Structures are given as structure tokens and as C-alpha cells.
């Protein structure tokens, strides 16, 4: 046979599971999009079409919903760990499971004054509005021995309206850009961070608190860095995380430079004193980098932050 | 000539304008997407291609940016009023201008404790994160005499995890649905409301406060209605607005019923006690209606809430 | 009660139905996205939540699938007519039904030479690739007496690389645009045309042939018009349809002017002789108009072409 | 310093360049979306913000447009090779350049009969409609010595309406799926293939012919495989390419199983004889694999086919 099979994986992608937990009249939501990818001894299904080693993707879907009941959803990470362990330990041919999860956050709708007097509470406890800001993501990979947990977020749009410059760069025959000493810096953050928790003997991180703190440090670094380049801001965001979160060893960002161009108002006899900008769609600068704890291995794939 | 020209309009769509206002070290953002549509004596450009009556769409774009400087952007509505008046009053052939605006909200990034001590404030004043919840919209139409202002929002996703039933409906030979006595009710709100401000002699509403209050009443009505049908909830949302906001005479909603189906876990020996749901994409129920102040005219077009 | 109910409708939207017809070894596909909207005596479901007049949206979905079997899908228009008639005639409270359908076209995959010798045919007869060009659309409305059929297409992207000019326009203080004597003209066509078939006594058009011919005339008019404005091209596209298709009385187009800007290469010592263009996303000119057969009524809503 | 910089790259993404070539009255289009990513000695811009080694992303954009004039666009691959070589050889700090290109195909609009008589040709030679089927992609990477060219396509939707089965799979406690002996097999192909052309001394492939033939073999393998699993079909698609195209050593596919579920019409007294299907959106099976020429190295990243 002149051709051979290389890396392969399969599973059910984008299982949308919503879990409601009722604590008396107070309800809680977990709203996830779960994708399962399994790999192992799968040559025959590719070569001959024999499904003797194949747990159907429909079954992996059923397992997601059943586990939401059996284990609850404490966090996306914890839920993914339950799933990955199950597939690897219960199915002989499966040697590796990778679970990817997107999480959508909801916040409570505040009750009206009249209503809150009536129900003796300041919030209706079963009514929610989707927060709609970043999408939280995680990827759990398990090979039967070791865990790799990479979490992060995407689609978080941030802007500094000052404290950003860009000058002193290389000029070649195709360079026309003017240097800028006060520009808008805006980006749509896609970030991933890898935990150093890799085995069941270690104490597991508090996934929810870790996310909240990592996000906070990242945003503060963005806000507080006086920026000479988006690369510098990116590095500050990553190193702020590494320095403050001991559970994280590696961070990777993909930061599109969402250009805001100062509009030339002079033809209309007006002076644009850093006030009126045109927000451009395409093209955009795209700055990507990994930041590592000294001594840590680089494991987050180059392309992962753009998925 | 066997064919004639009917309704027509033209202009530049989706002008992305960002206005930064500096109040000392504290910056403010207005982030709009502005679309201009002009109509009037435009037969010749269609029949012969003569542009003698045509102000270029490029000029309407320039006007948007110039007006952001000349008039500022107090609110999307006020900005649209400036633009519409300008086109109708300054261009002889233009008899009607319609300005549509989307607005994206930003919130401030909270500073780190260390930083806030340093700058003596609890927020960095030029750093923002896009809120990312609903998109606020407005449409201003001016014919040289009268104004029509229709504002609203889209893409606001809400959910009640209980207090919703659906039963007592018509059954025909194609009906298989089981009645439900405790279901999730979720929708992605697209709403528009028409103001009764129509001429320059009237006192103009406070557009920003009106939006904030209308949104609040709408969300509270959603949360507080014990729902026997999504139509009933929709009507409560609309009438709550009419009853509380005297500046508004008409409301229209388009509410997709974002189905959350209870997953059947019995094959796995599990009982699903209103806990685990599958969030479906398509198809969805689609409930649309207009609610009017008694005596008001119905003017919001049927299709407008889906644009 | 200070508020009253205005226009309202409900139904199941985006029912994705695929119908395979087997003609021996040769298969045929119809691939539709069907949305049902019903209206009539529906006050109570809004006021009190009583569903006594409500045929569930789930039932309207079931009806779509059952009718695909019972009536087949000869054309999207004919299928919509079956559905609309059914809801209005079988449900006492329903007085009007509106069916909207998107259709996706598929073409056959050509077989390999070796295979075609073997099976004695030049095509594998059950293998298809989605054409992926325009989406065909139709809207059927029935009130128990009269029919309104509006068909069309969206997302058909066309370009003339020459034979387009733009000059002789109005200049005001905000005008900076240079006149153009040879430019690219490109647009993403959204078009709708209304048939003059309105009642069961009339001979019904051949919907498939009408679509094919209308599309052809529209494209030819686009290609063959030497354009002084996009409005002129639009008018030619519409009048060509009216003049060639007697079954159509009204056409409306929404044509975004997809700007292709000539890139200034002079800073690099290069001359750009109408060769290298930057294809812009936003903003775009937006040209919209209705063209009517003389004497016909204008019935296609202003906003419909943008849905 | 406790943190260090890992893999990093930067450049301008999504430069939309349209190149018109005039061959007398006959025009030709190349329509590309070009993304540049450069890497090399870039530590300082991350650590201190010094841009002394940074060619601005704006310059990389200018270079794309200038090269479209200077070198023309013979093929996306050839254009990417010109760009990658330029950045690596002309900028001391740049050691690697990666160019990603999407290409959109256009076809000619056929002229009307009347017109073709007039111009003595059967086609208007400057009028085009975007084909709108798959998007063709390529990625060129150059490190100053070796080339890696990975081409492919995405968003090509295909369907077999018969000749697909699925049975004989593993059943565990979460398995409810029924075996299928005649099902629809549909997928949205994302495929990438790596060329064994790696250095300037080798004869370069004919990129356009290679694409056309690779696509043809892939589609024929999809159509002609009697499928017992989507994995088997995927493997056939890949090995058909390897066996027929000597310039390609590695292929990777990501194939979502776009489920078409047979609708249960029995409650309505109807028999569904593989005629009426519901086309589902989410979840979907996702089958991914690499196929290699025996002895070839596996170099296409796992995640690349999903970008």
C-alpha cells in the first residue's frame, strides 16, 4: 500500500448543553458547547470501513448529556476532565481523548422595585441575560497518564484611547507609514494559558477562581502598559499572568491590531485633535506570541489561538 | 417606456465612526455604525445615468465624520437628527433622509489595586472593554417637516429557567408536541420603539435615559411574567414599556423561541428533573407583534425588527 | 387597557428540509429552508396566554416535512403555495399565511473516466456538490382569496472590470471624491420580483423556468450596460426583467456598491494602469430601487430586499 | 526575568487584492486575501518596545499591492513565493516568512444572443460572477533555505444520497444509535495537501493544474466510494490524491459529518422511504485524519485544517 494513515481523531463536535441547578428558588446556569475528539487504534475504520473499534459519535454526544446529570458541571475544566477520563479508561481502543469546551456566561436580571418588595429579594432568581462579552474556552487532553489543560478566552475587545505610540521602525522602499506618538490601541483578544497541573496526584487548581484572576491580570496589564508596540503590550499581558498565577506556565496570545485611523478633516476646515476615528475591518496587523515561565516547555500550538 | 421607477434611495452604509472625548485624563467613547439613505428627485440618475442631482455616497460618508467633530455625538439619536436635517435642508433634490445607526457600548477596565493607589482612582480612565451585549439601534427619518424616530436593540439573549408553560393549544393531524408545564423560555430580543416626538416644536426626549429605562422595563417584564405563551410575554414586555414611557407610542418585537429541549436520559437509567437541556439552533419558533398606545398609528414596518 | 395589539404573526422559522427523489439510479435533490408565519384571530394568546387558537409552531414544522412527502417539492414556490393554502383553509382562526423559503442549489459530481466506462454513464447519479453561488428565495402570502408571490435571490456577487464611470455629481463642502472615467463596478445582488399571478383561476407560471430566465436577463443587463451610475445599471437590470418576463410586474434591488479602490503605487515608482485594486468591506454605497411595469402597484416592502 | 518569549510572529493579515489583467478586450481576474506573518530576531520589540527590527505591518501590506504589479499574480502559490522570499532576503532580522492566501474564483457572465451577434463573441469579456463554491487556500513558508507549500480548500459541501452505511460499531451503556444500511453522507470539506517541492533547485509544480486535478480526484473518490464509515471515505479521498499526484506527499482532511436525519412520518400515516430528511446544524460528527505517502514525514499541523 503506497499510502499510510497519519494522525487521526474523531468525535462529536459542538454539543450544546445547558445545565440548570436549582438551589431553592435560586437557579444557576452552566451553558457549554462541548466537542469530543478521540484517537487510538483506528486504522481499520480508515482502511476497510470496519467500525469494530468505533464508539459512535452519537454515543459521545449522549455521554456529554448523561455526565451533565451524573457529575454536574462544576466548571468547564472539571467537566472536561470527567469526560476525557471516561473515554480513555472505558474504551480499550481509545488511547487519547481531547475535549474542547466553549462557555457562555449569564448574569441575573435585576427585579423591579415593586417586584422586589413583593418577593422580598432584589433579584428575580430564575431570570438571566447572556453576558455576551468574551467566550471562555478550555481544552483538556488525556492519554491515560497525563493531563494537559489549556484554558483561555476569545472575542474580548479592548481599547486604550491613548498611551500608545509607534515609531522608530524599519523603513524600506515600500514604507509609507507616518510615525505616531498618540494613537488608539485596540484589539480583540484571543488568549490561551496552559496549567502545570498534569497528573492526578497533584492538587487540582480552582478553575473558576483561576479564570477570574487570570482575566483580571490580563486586562490590567493591557490598561496599565504605556505601549510602544502591540508586541510590548502582549508581552506585558502574558508575563503579568505568569508572575501572578503560579498554576500557569505558558500563555499564548493572538492579537489583531484593530486599526482606528484618525480621519483627515482638514479638507473641511476642521482640526481633528485625536477625536474622530474610522474603525477599519481589514486588513489588520496580527501579533502573536507565546510567553513562558523560565524553564517551561512550549506546548501550545502556534495555530490554536486562532481556532 | 413600459417600465417606471418606484421607491428608491441611496447613500453610504456602515460608516464606522469612533469619537473620543477627553475630559482631562478621563476619556469617553461613542462607537457607532452609521448608514445614510437619501431619496428625492432622482429619476434621471436611474433613467440616463446623469448624476446632476446626486451627492456622492462618498460625500455622505465624509459628512458623518465631519459632523462627529462639528456637533459631537451626544447620543445616536441626536447625531442622526443632525445628519438627516443637513441632507434635506442643504440639498435641493433630497426630500427625505433616513439615518440608521448601530451603537456598541464600552465599559471601563478596573485598575489594579496597586495602580489605583498610585493614580488615586479606582479606574484607569482611558482603557475600555467592549460590553458585547445587545447592539443598540436607531432610525431617524426626516422629510423636511416631520421626524420619525424609532429606536431599539437587537441580539439581547434572555432566559427564564422556570415559570413558563405551554398547553391548551390546537391539535390537528400533524400535531405531536407534548404539553409542557415547566419549561425554559429563552429568546434573542429584537425590539423597536417609536417615539411620539415628531416635530422641532416639541420638547425632545432624553434619548440616553429613555433607552436605559425602556430596556430596564422590558427586561423586568420578561423576568416577572409567569408565561403561558411567548406571545403573552411579548405583550407584557411591550405594554410595560408603553405604560411606563410616555415618550413612546408603539413597540414591535421579533422574538425567536430559542428552544431548550429536555434531554431524555432514561435510556441511561437517569432521571432528568428539569436539569439537562439541549440548546437547539434551528428551527425556532418566531413570535412577532406590535403593541400600541391606544389611539396611536401603527408605523413600524413588519420586517424592520428583523433587519 | 391603555395598550392594544397591532400586527402580529407566529410560526416555525428555518425548517431545513432535504427531499431526495429517486428516478432509478438517478437521484434529484431539493434543499430548502422553510419559514412559516401565520396570523389571524390571535388576540387572546397575547392578552391572557390562552392557546385555544394556536396551532403550535412545532405542528407547522411537522407539516413542512409531511408535505414534502405528500406533495413532493416541484419548486419552492409550488411547495409554499401548498403550505399556505393548508394553514388558511384548515385552521379557522388563521386568516393569512406567509411562507418564506430559501433554496440551495446542488450540481452533480462528474465521474472519473474509468468509472464512467464501468457504469456506462458520464456522471455518478447520486453524488452532488453544493453550487454555493446565490441563494434563491421566495415568499408566498395567502389570505384565503388572493396570492402574492415574490421571488428572487441574494448573495450573487458580480463585477464589471471596465465600462463604468462616475462623474458630473453634486459637490458640496464635504465632497472630496475624484471623478472616475474607468472604474470597477461590483455588487452583491439582492433582488426580489413580484408575479402578477394572484388567483387560482389564472394559469400558474412555470416557476423554475421563470427563475432561470429572470436571472439570465438580470445578469446580461448587468454585463451589457455601459454604466454612468450604479442606479442606471440597477434600472436596466429591473427593466430588462419587466420587458422580458410578462409574469413579473415589479422588481426591487438592493445593490451594495462593493468598492474596489485603485491602489496608489506611485510612492514605489510604479504606475497602476487599472490593474491593482484594494477590495474594501465597509463602508459601501447602497443603492436601492423598485422598478414597475407601467400601471402596476408598488407592493414589495422597502426593507424586504435586505432580509 | 522570570518569563521568557517563545514562538512569535507578526504581519498584516487579510490584505484584499484584486488584480485585473487586460488581454485586449478580454479581462482576467485574480482575487486574493493575503496574510503575512514574519518571525526572526524580535525579542526587543516584546521586551522593551523598541521597533528597530520591525518592518511595519503597513509596509507588508504595501508590498503585497506593489508585488501584484511588479510580478503579477500567476497563481496564489507563485505570488506567495515571491512575497516570502522578499521578506526573508531583504530584511536582516526576518528569518522566516509565512504567507497565507485565500483565493476566490470568478466565472464569466454569458452574453445575451442579441449582444453576442453584435460583438461577434459568445461572452462579454469583462463581466464576471463570483463562483462562490469552495475557497482555495495556500500557505507558503520560507526560512531562507527551504520551502514548505501547503495548499487546499475549504467550504466545499458535498453529498452522496445513497451508498453509505454505518453499523457494526461499539455499543456501551450510553449508546442508543440505530444501525443504518442506507443513509445520506454529506460533509463540508476542509482539506490541505503538502507539496514535496522544497527547494529552488527542484522543478516547480504547475500550481494551477495541480489544484484542478487534485480537486477532481478528491471529488471522484468521494463520489465513487461505497462508504461504511466517513473515515473510510476520507482515507479514499486522501490516498486517491497521493496515488495520482506525484507532487503531493501528505494530505489532511477535516470532515464534519453534516447529519441528515430521516424524518419520522409515521405519526401522520406516511412512510418515509429515504425521501424526506432534516438537515441538522449542530452537533456534528467531526472526522479528521492525515494520509501520507509511505516514507513521508507528517508536517501538516493537526489544527491547520480548521483555520
From TrEMBL, chains A, B, C, D:
It is an enzyme of class 1 (oxidoreductase). Gene3D superfamilies: Urate Oxidase (3.10.270.10). Its EC number is 1.7.3.3. The keyword rRNA-binding does not apply. Pathway: Purine metabolism; urate degradation; (S)-allantoin from urate: step 1/3. The keyword Oxidoreductase applies. Keywords: Oxidoreductase, Purine metabolism. It catalyses: urate + O2 + H2O = 5-hydroxyisourate + H2O2. Belongs to the uricase family. Catalyzes the oxidation of uric acid to 5-hydroxyisourate, which is further processed to form (S)-allantoin. This is Uricase. The gene is pucL.
